[in-house]
Amino acid sequence: MPAILGTGEHRYRVVENFAKLPDGCQLTDVASVAVDSRDRVYVFNRGAHPMVVLDREGNFLRSWGEGLFSRAHGLHIDADDNLYCTDDGDHTVRKCTTEGKVLLTIGIPEKPSPFMSGDPFHRCTHTALSPKGEIYVSDGYGNARVHKFTPDGKLMRSWGEPGTDPGQFNIVHNIVTDADGWVYVADRENHRVQVFDGDGKYETQWNNLHRPCALCCCGGGRSPTFVIGELGPGMAVNRKVPNLGPRLSIVDAKGKRIARLGGEEGPGVASGKFLAPHGIALDSKGDIYVGEVGVTDWKTSFPDEDMPAAVRTTRCLQKLERVRE
Fold it and tell me: Keywords of this protein's UniProt record, alphabetized (predicted)?
């Protein structure tokens, strides 16, 4: 029987062997996922075919991005089904059609700004859009910064610096917005999500998280919920400590936890377990798609075990189907 995660109204059934790929196609690490207006699933991954497109049943539709992307990291889709693809390997954000045509490039490919300079970009991680279509970019591994751009890619302002105080970041890893224009930033190694207004003014922070890595704002209107992917232990000293993830947490608009999915007994490949949640998207039915960087994270979690072949093929993408009965 497939595993069931969560409780009450937030129960999800793990869909076994969701991705049905052509022979020889491997997803490897799935850095991020997005779902368009027709419930097609865009799988931004670090394999030979960076963008793999599936239907909601997991059937392969097409792939693209070969030779374009260096290292997949973040993926956001707008109301017009344009994809914002964040590549931390060549320090760019590319706005693309669902067929892979590049409409806009922000950043200079393969030319990072100086480390911790605050200038865009040095290993940028993700994007989000304001209600006006302005582009926020989290930046990332070689910066501790959020940048705000006009819809056509002109820099408007930046905020953030290294540190642990409010408004400071220790790996600014993911970013989302809501209908009111609030900006939510996964401050991964500070174990929190920080909340800002649209101009970068600090509002509050959500705690009681362990290495929040993925963020998804769910539902429109004034009371969204959020699904947060928590990466789990990253150090040998707490590698086998229970209740630290990897897992998904569902919270309300104030950061109060509504439900938690998995993570009680650490990572794994068994049904109902996660490896390294890195990207999250929901479809029109409320089903959750989870991209995981299980290949990259394997030796961190399982330093003395061989990696199963499935991790390199399909296991880095999971679908959780909402239980509706």
Answer: Glycoprotein, Repeat, Signal
